[in-house]
Amino acid sequence: MLVKTKVWSSGRINHCAYSYCFMCLLFLHRHIMQGLMHKHLWQLRCFARLLLAVQWRYCSQKQLPILTLFTKNPCPLCDEAKQELEPYKHRFLLQEVDILLPENKVWYERYKYDIPVFHLNGQFLMMHRVNTTVLEKRLGRMEHKESTLRAHDTHHVE
Predict the structure, then answer these.
(1) Which of 15, 95, 116, 157 is within CB 3.0–4.6 Å of 78 for a Cys-Cys bond?
(2) Same domain, 108 and 142
(3) How far apart, in whole angstroms, are the C-alpha atoms of residue 12 and residue 25?
(4) Domain for residue 157, yes or no?
């Protein structure tokens, strides 16, 4: 039995093709109840390795960092900044926060004279203009950390 699942994270959706773990549990339960575990042990080991590989590949996809732009309308500097970010847009998710909206009053008080202001994953990154050196450095550091973690996870899966 396969159960289709969706995993939500960071405001976007990662599609896990199917819940292979659930299928594995049903398979194991059936064989335990029938006393067939000893007959199919090598098959179960292969199956478990396959499940781990599939889960790692489809359910733990890379999460892009969130670049938050604090802006208002009109903001020519913000429009210019967004154009400068175009070559990097595949490396982050851009989230815009309009500081003029009532629910963003705190951000208005903090940044009313400084927009555009950028945060990367909730931490201040830059203001007034895009600094590609700073952006590149922080994104590179985050990507290196992510690739190191994924390499470590791959080692444990295999």
Answers:
(1) 116
(2) yes
(3) 28
(4) no
Cα dist. 9→70, 73, 95, 152 in Å? 22, 29, 14, 22
Chain-centre distance of CA 51, in angstroms? 21
Do 54 and 82 fall into the same domain? no
CATH number of the domain to which 122 belongs? 3.40.30.10
* pTM over cut 0.90: no
Total domains in the fold of the chain: 2
Cα–Cα distance between 157 and 48 in angstroms, integer? Answer: 10
Report DSSP letters for 61-104, one per residue: PPPPPEEEEEE-SS-HHHHHHHHHHGGGGGGSEEEEEETTSGGG
Residues in the chain, pLDDT under 70: 1-62, 150-158
| Cα atoms found within 13 Å of the Cα of residue 111, Cβ hemisphere only | 23
Regarding whether 78 and 121 lie in a shared domain, the answer is yes
Q: Are strands 66-71 and 117-120 parallel, antiparallel or unpaired?
A: antiparallel
pLDDT per position as a tens digit, 100-129? 999 999 999 999 999 999 999 999 999 999
Q: Tokens 């903090």 map to which residue?
A: 110
**Domain assignment of residue 11, given as a range:** 5-61
